[in-house]
Specification:
By secondary structure, the protein is an alpha+beta fold. The chain has 6 helices and 5 strands. It has a 5-stranded mixed β-sheet with strand order 2-3-1-4-5, with helices on both faces. Mean pLDDT is 88; it is low at 191-196.
Length: 196
């Protein structure tokens, strides 16, 4: 009888552990992009809100890199979605190779990616963007795809909301598209742009 109780107790404990493990896995799946395993857009906004709050409380700078793949749609249309997926996976690997452990990499959607750079000023954001370009050039060379990068930098004393920061980084990215090939455009936000 005692042996049977031990077996039931052991089974119940292993079942609890399995349920807890499955819950962790489901939580992770809900937070990440299925293809690239980078964070997804919903998780991006959660992380960005948290990092903006922290940076404002600690009076630290924060930078947001927003980039997309120029020429990606043509490759996807002409060579197929499998080739497009390979390029997206390569891009995700490139991103992982150039960021710090504390940086937050995201597949924003389609061929758009973001990197949140906590306590990062303009110079350090520029260096990350340059590393991104240098790593991407040889790996994407034969695809015909290039990268346009926009950076928005929130100053240490500035209060700004997530949507405004994303909008400014997106605008900077579109300005970089006016140039050909790999390009980087930075917007440094100052107190004149404070959110109410």
């Amino acid at each position: 009888m005692e042996h049977g109780k031990d077996e039931v107790t052991s089974y119940a404990e292993s079942l609890e552990q399995e349920v807890a493990q499955r819950a962790r896995e489901l939580h992770q799946l809900a937070r990440t992009d299925g293809l690239t395993k980078l964070l997804n857009q919903r998780s991006f906004y959660e992380e960005l809100h948290r990092e903006l709050s922290r940076s404002q409380r600690m009076e630290e700078s924060l930078s947001l890199i927003y980039f997309d793949l120029d020429g990606f749609k043509a490759v996807n249309d002409q060579q197929g979605h499998r080739r497009g997926d390979e390029i997206l996976l390569t891009t995700a690997d490139i991103v992982r190779s150039v960021i710090r452990e504390e940086d937050i990499a995201v597949r924003y959607g389609g061929d758009e990616f973001c990197i949140i750079l906590p306590h990062s000023v303009s110079d350090s954001a520029q260096r990350v963007a340059q590393r991104l370009v240098e790593a991407a050039k040889p790996k994407l060379a034969e695809t015909g795809v290039t990268i346009s990068i926009g950076i928005a930098v929130k100053g240490s004393k500035m209060v700004i909301d997530a949507n405004t920061l994303v909008k400014k980084a997106d605008e900077a990215m579109y300005r970089s598209k006016e140039k050909t090939g790999y390009s980087i455009n930075i917007t440094e936000l100052d107190d004149a742009l404070k959110s109410p």
